[in-house]
Amino acid sequence: MTNTDFSQAISLIESARRILITTHIRPDGDAVGSITALKTIIEQAAGQKQNDCVVQLLLLSEPSDNYMFLLPDETWFLDEHITQEQIDAGQLDRFDLIIIADTCAARQLQGLSNYLTQRTKNARETNAGILVIDHHLSGDAIGNCQLVDTDACAAGEIIYRLCRRANWPLNESAASALLAAIGTDTGWFQFENSSAQAFKIAGELLEAGAKADRMYQKLYQNDPPEKLQLLAMTLQTLELHCDGQLAVMQITSEMLAKSRAKRSHIENIVNEPQNIASVIAVILLVEQDDGSTRGSLRSKEKIDVNMVARQFGGGGHARAAGLTIQDSLPIARKRIIDAMIAAMS
Known about the structure:
Layout: E1 2-4, H1 6-15, E2 18-23, H2 29-48, E3 54-59, H3 65-68, E4 76-77, H4 84-88, E5 97-101, H5 113-126, E6 129-134, E7 145-149, H6 155-166, H7 172-185, H8 196-207, H9 212-220, H10 225-235, E8 239-241, E9 246-251, H11 253-259, E10 281-287, E11 293-299, H12 305-310, E12 315-316, E13 320-325, H13 329-344
Parallel strand pairs: 2-3, 2-5, 3-4, 5-6, 6-7, 9-10
Antiparallel strand pairs: 1-7, 8-9, 10-11, 11-13, 12-13
Helix pairs in contact: 2-6, 2-7, 6-7, 7-8, 7-9, 10-11
């Protein structure tokens, strides 16, 4: 699906004087890289035209430590710099434009979704815009302008194309952030979404000053010991089903406490079983603090895990998707495994 009205998006951005940029909860590399690059690009473009433009980043939850280096010091975090109550009271009304990157799903904007829904309804009366930039298959009717391309390898790809279409400057800092966005969402150009376009853009980002080796080291060779301890414990839970084609792992609250790992350290653990030759689908189940269960789904081929996730109110991509259900881990485990086996049969 493609809905890319770059002209309207450019007009919204260039006419705004106060811009808030945000992304989904549990932000990954594409989310963090995209919003950081967009802030830099917009500020540089405004500076060239001698326009006074303030751009503020807001994260609804903390990203993995591996991505923190990308964020500017003045980044806001929900509950630390602004509360949901303040948001609901209208404190974000001062921003002419809100940009949401890497999602268009209300369930992934906890703390902000109610405000965005109301702001979308009032957009015509208040001239307060909401721009969505996303590449996922599932989403909601948020915003009055959407740049959605489900064929794009990452939100970072769409932002790069927006930058070039608008003829905005792209410095080394923005290029590095976009390389992080595209690189992480393509598994450093190993996943199915590593298109010719993705490689072409990556080359142009390197020409703009991004350093692939330094970025890779910061993203993938910078883990604390606690994360490796959690990985070792998680691999011990590995079970194979369907003649070795389905891998299932789980992480309990007890495992997190014992390893002293953060929940943000869980990212990418789901990819480990895909190194097994027979495995074509993976389920990682994570026990949440409130007793619910978070599921991360991956597949190599044939299996559309987005369709499986959508059965439980989740979503994502055909090869990578996620979901959260209120069931305890043992109950959720059976339900999700059954749904995946049905999809594989």
